[in-house]
Write a structure and sequence with these properties.
globular, 5 strands, 5-stranded parallel beta sheet, alpha/beta, Oxidized Rhodanese, domain 1
């Protein structure tokens, strides 16, 4: 077997594994509009309350993350590798792979500045609890004076709650 053939087989195996991780193996055919664990308030909390102090990193539960995502005012960054974003991501999220942090920082600064001015939270997520990309990106952003929140459990928590994806 040639070296090129072995590479193609290895790439196909990797993509199969990643695709299997992105999609639930078994689950209901209909997804609920809201996760079962979420509580509904009669009056929504002000979105500005979700913005942490400047230069801080705050963990955020799915129960807090979901209403902000639904409001379409939060600035959400998917810091997983770009191919993971292309397979599936949280609706409204923008791809900013951790590996591209430095290359994309200048273009993202304006987005974060606009979000801060509008009092909209900046939120990050990674693959799951074992993924450290969101922590690495959040720490670097906090060092630059930006306040960010990290979705606890990452994209895996989103998928486990059977929330919609793009």
């Amino acid at each position: 077997m040639t070296r090129a053939a072995r590479r193609w087989i290895a790439a196909a195996c990797l993509l199969s594994v990643l695709a299997g991780c992105a999609l639930p193996a078994v689950g209901p055919s209909r997804r609920p509009d809201t996760p079962a664990a979420l509580t509904v308030r009669s009056r929504p909390a002000p979105l500005s309350a979700a913005i942490p102090k400047p230069g801080t990193v705050t963990p955020m539960s799915l129960n807090s993350f979901y209403p902000l995502q639904q409001s379409a005012t939060a600035l959400i960054y998917d810091v997983r590798p770009g191919f993971s974003y292309r397979i599936s991501h949280i609706p409204g999220a923008r791809s900013w792979p951790a590996s591209q942090f430095d290359a994309q920082l200048a273009s993202r600064e304006a987005e974060m500045r606009d979000a801060k001015t509008a009092k909209h939270p900046v939120m990050l997520y990674c693959s799951d609890l074992s993924c450290q990309n969101s922590t690495k990106v959040a720490t670097r952003l906090a060092a630059l004076g930006h306040s960010v929140s990290i979705l606890e459990g990452g994209y895996a928590a989103w998928k486990t709650a059977e929330l919609p994806s793009e």
